[in-house]
Amino acid sequence: MTESFPVPARDQTPLRRVNELSVLAVLRDGAPRSLREVSHATGLSWRTTQVVAEGLGTHGWLAETEAASETAGRKAVGRPARRYRFRAEAGHVVGLDIGVHRVQVLIADLAAEVVGSGSAMVSPSDPAPDRLAAAQGALNAALAEARLTPADMWAAAMGTSGIIGPDGTVTASALLPGWNGLNPGKLISPSLHCDVEVANDANLAALGERWRGHGARTVIYVLAGTRLGAGLIIDGRLHRGAAGAAGEIGALRGAGWPDAAERLATTDIGEGAAGDRDHAAHRVFAAARAGNQAARAAVDRFVADIAHGIAAMVLTIDPELVVLGGGFSHAADLLLPRLGAELAGMCPHLPLLKASELGDDVVALGALRLALDTVDQRLTELDSAEPLTPAAIRGL
Questions:
Q1: Is the same domain home to 290 and 341?
Q2: Which CATH number characterizes residue 219's domain?
Q3: What does the pLDDT look like over 126-171, one tens digit per residue?
Q4: What are the start-end ranges of the H helices in 77-200?
Q5: Average pLDDT over residues 169-184
């Protein structure tokens, strides 16, 4: 994630802009504060804080709120202190998750509060136009729920399957028909009136986990389900690599990732060779919990299949934490102890192993975080000679 705002500076030319960003950073959490509180938090003088807050109010970033007139049950003497709040409703961002079985859309304000959502079920065999149409329908539903229009959106991000190039083009996708060579963000952006940044879904799941989940600074997020993927957070930042292929351990021959889930689902217990492999895998996990030896052996084999790929990443970045997410995270009670035993035999340092608690929302949440980071970046990159107005940030 990007750092939100710089600390106050008193010896630089763009002093006003730095002070504006510092005041916004203090009020960004949504809690109204008095000028005295903001002054103390930023280190600015009370008078400077007042001037900056009034200017931000004029530009639509802040709103003055009713001051408390009671102190410990008694009326305060003198004029109540002026209080300001950040106008999170000034702008909104969109997070999209376009998956194999489902598309999801979340809309949040600038304080990251979700104000609208929409979803639709899709089929693995759906062609690209149908999948994008489903995403458009979910987006329309989210906008309607939030009572907003596309013009209210400042930034958007999308997570989807495959290797995503720096320009948002899907350079390789084995799961979604017609997805190779497509830039789905460019096809959605005209209906949002803003650019849509596209990223691999496992990467955004890692970002969502860092933001709303376990929160360690160096994390390997394993998206485990009927397919396998991984996202990397290194020193608090999403690491996508030069071509967007970081974490694509499935491309390593012998790692066991490409068909690990298939071998699990097509055991005699799962009977998922021609059917729903996710449902078949759930049957295997249930049987393993019930003590079925064949199911336990299948789970052992699945963990052994994925452990070498995870170990390769652990040995490379030495993370604090490995998070198991995706459709198989419900089986963490079976998978994590076995994975820990496998990794202990291969890695000199065993990181913490935890299951994600964010469920199906994790990719869309990561997309929201990426979109919010885009807004933060615009705030810090705006020329200090230009007024810091919402219109200026929205129009970049």
A1: yes
A2: 3.30.420.40
A3: 999 999 999 999 999 999 999 999 999 999 999 999 999 999 999 9
A4: 128-146, 184-188
A5: 93
Instruction: Please choose, from the candidates 203, 134, 205, 176, the residue with its C-alpha nearest in 3D space to the C-alpha of residue 359.
Output: 205
Helix 35-42 vs helix 46-58: crossing angle, to nearest 10: 110
pLDDT at position 196: 96
Same domain, 220 and 351: yes
CA 28 to CA 204: how far, in whole Å? 23
**Spatial separation of the C-alpha atoms in residues 235 and 154, rounded to whole Å:** 27
CA of 193: how far to CAs of 143, 152, 243, 364, 394, in Å? Answer: 13, 9, 27, 19, 10
Give pLDDT tens digits for 20-33: 999 999 998 778 99
Residues 6+ apart with CB under 8 A from 33: 26, 27, 41, 83, 84, 85
Calculate Rg over the CA atoms of the chain.
24
Which structure tokens are listed for 235?
């020193």
Question: From its phi and psi, is residue 267 left (phi > 0), alpha (psi between -120 and 50) or beta?
Answer: beta
Percent of the chain scored above 70 by pLDDT? 91
344 shares its domain with 366: no
Question: What tokens were used for 22?
Answer: 């510092």
| Pair (311, 289) in one structural domain | yes
What type of residue sits at position 82?
R
**The domain containing residue 320 runs over which residues?**
214-357
Residue 114 vs residues 88, 121, 316, 325: alpha-carbon distances, Å: 11, 21, 36, 22
Q: How many domains does the chain have?
A: 3
341 and 228: one domain? yes
Query: 195 and 259: one domain?
Result: no
Task: Note whether residue 63 is domain-resident.
Answer: yes
Secondary structure (3-state) at 394: helix
